[in-house]
Every structure is written in C-alpha cells, then in structure tokens.
Amino acid sequence: MKNIQIYHADKYSTPAYIKVEENIYKGKNPYRDGDEDKDMYFTSLSFEQEPELGEGETPADISQEPLEGILDMFRLCITDFYDELNEKSTCTCYQEFGGRDVDAIRELLKIVGKHVYCERTVVPEDEIDDEEELEAYRAMSEEELEEEGYIFYETVIK
Questions:
Q1: Of the candidates 28, 112, 40, the residue with the CA atom closest to the CA atom of residue 70
Q2: Are the C-beta atoms of residues 63 and 153 closer than 8 Å to each other?
Q3: Dihedral (Cα; 121, 126, 127, 133), 10-degree rounding
Q4: What residues contact residue 125 under an 8 Å CB cut-off, 6+ apart?
Q5: DSSP structure string for 114-151
Q6: Which of 36, 12, 23, 31 is nearest to 105 (CA)?
Q7: Res 32: pLDDT
C-alpha cells in the first residue's frame, strides 16, 4: 500500500456521526444490534495497491494483505468498503476503518504518508533446536513450510 491518505467521506457530515477530533468520528457500530457496544470510532483512508508486491490489481479487488495485518496490528475492522468508489476508480482504493478504541484509530492515522507492505520471513534453521524438528523442516516443500508456520508474512510500515 502506498500513497496512503485521509479520505474525507461525505457521510461524516451527517447527524449519524460526531466529530471527535480531526479525521476521527464516532457513530453507531454497524455490526451490533443490541444495547451493548453501540458506538465505534471511524476514519477513512485512500491508498494505492502494489500488484508487484502481491497486492490486488484494481480497487475493485482489494487484497487482504497487508490490510489484514493493519487490522490485526491496530485491533480494527473494515466498516465500509466504499464499493461504488472502488468500482469506479482505476487505482485509488477507499476503506473505512472502525474500532471501539479511539486510540487505535489515532495510531492507524500515523500510517498516512507511509509505505505498508508484507515482507516474507522464513524461520532460519539455526533457530530450530530440536533435531527431529530440524530434519522435518529440511524435508518440507515451500508450501509445507508455509502451512507449518516456518514461512510467514509480516506487515511492515515504513
């Protein structure tokens, strides 16, 4: 993900949202019907994907990575996919992020202007202490190494 910017959605000007601070809004949790957990904090971002890094080719097909890593890192969820905007756009993606903790939204906003991508990490042989495990590790295919967690993808923010 590159060219990450704040997206000022028109819906934040409606009575359904209360501006908490710059680029952070409070509104009803779209995933809850009961009395509990009614409110959430929201912000929206725009960004471009990087197909050369394994990300989606178009905004209509936003890849899960590094987006999933961001959601996990900041304990957030996607609350609006802006399907219409993403369908019309040739390169810019739009997503709304929501969470129960306003500090998580504040932290997310720190990625604006940065580069976010997934970096492939392989557990090195010298980190495997057990001889049987090491023998099994050496016999595994790339696919098996990934399935067993010896190869994983880490979300990097630079």
A1: 112
A2: no
A3: 100
A4: 134, 137, 138
A5: S-EEEEEEE--GGG---HHHHHHHHH--HHHHHHTTSE
A6: 23
A7: 77
CA distance 43 to 25: 6
Quickly count: other Cβ atoms within 10 Å of residue 41's Cβ: 25
pLDDT tens for each residue of 58-91 = 999 999 999 999 999 999 999 999 999 999 999 9
- What is d(CA 60, CA 28) in angstroms, rounded to the nearest whole number? 26
Which residues neighbour 16 within 8 Å (Cβ) at sequence distance 6 or greater?
A: 27, 28
Structure tokens belonging to residue 111: 């990625």
Q: Are 80 and 95 in contact (CB under 8 A)?
A: yes
* Cα first-last separation, the chain: 11
d(CA 138, CA 42): 46
Helix (H) or strand (E) holding 12: none
Q: Cβ(119)–Cβ(69) under 8 Å?
A: no
- Confidence band for 33, pLDDT divided at 50, 70 and 90: low
Q: How far is it, in rounded angstroms, from Cα 155 to Cα 94? A: 19
Residue 30's alpha-carbon distances to 16, 37, 45, 106, in angstroms, are: 11, 10, 18, 20
